[in-house]
Amino acid sequence: MAEYIPPALDWVRDQVELYEASGGTEGTTLRDTGLPCIIVTHVGTKSGALRKIPVMRVKVENSYVLIGSYGGRPKNPVWVYNLRANPDVEIRDRTEVFKMRIREVTNDKERQNLWDAGAKAFPPYNEYQEKTSRKFPVFIAEQI
Questions:
Q1: pLDDT digits (tens, 9 = 90+) for 45-56
Q2: For residues 41 and 72, is the Cβ–Cβ distance under 8 A?
Q3: Rounded Cα distance, 6 and 106, in Å
Q4: Global confidence as pTM
Q5: pLDDT for 29-40, tens place per residue?
Q6: What is d(CA 95, CA 111) in angstroms, rounded to the nearest whole number?
Q7: Which CATH class is domain 10-143?
Q8: What is the CA radius of gyration of the chain?
Q9: Cβ proximity of 42 and 100 under 8 Å
Q10: For residue 88, what is the enclosing H or E element?
Q11: Domain extents for the chain?
């Protein structure tokens, strides 16, 4: 089993720890938004260690949409590169855990549909996109 390296940011680490320690019964909304989130466990590209991140819960049928917005910062969040290199992940959605495979969506129509689903679930994605010229990566996690 690979080593687990907790998130560097205090609030992210606290969110993951609460979510995981409670078995998915607490910490299931992102900070003070009240909006649901999931935990994505993935492998770090450089470290080879397990990493865990909370992301907005955007469910489309039996899949999850992940948007690398990073709050509109000019660079992608590090997890984007990890998912591109290591697409097999585990997703915790409250008390359920699924083995899934990530696929980056580049087809314009599919990407737009998934973006729309993401913006519906978390409207700030549109504001974040306006803050930068970077095109946010859009991924879909599908059951394997």
A1: 999 999 999 999
A2: no
A3: 30
A4: 0.95
A5: 988 789 999 999
A6: 28
A7: mainly beta
A8: 14
A9: no
A10: strand 88-93
A11: 10-143
